[in-house]
Fold:
Amino acid sequence: MTVAELTARMSERELQEWQLLEQQEPFGELRDDYRAASICLTLYNVNKGKDDKELHVDDFLLAFERSTGEDENEERPDNAFMALAEMMGATVKKEN
Structure:
């Protein structure tokens, strides 16, 4: 359905109701990303050692944008994926 078809068929009130529903019960790509991230976190927690860092589900979410002025040495979310892969025996090639 195109945007024009949607706006012709859906009232503003119905759109607002869908927005409220999405806030209460998320659906779509973001929810899928959180589901995948929670699986990764579970795998990490099952395999981590006592000295390994505590991580949160947000550490496993994919980052699609970087804010401007980000410190080059700041830990990035994909580092959590790399740590998990290494713990499970994968050889991870790190960029210099």
Q: What stands out?
A: Helices lie at 3-9, 12-24, 29-47, 78-87.
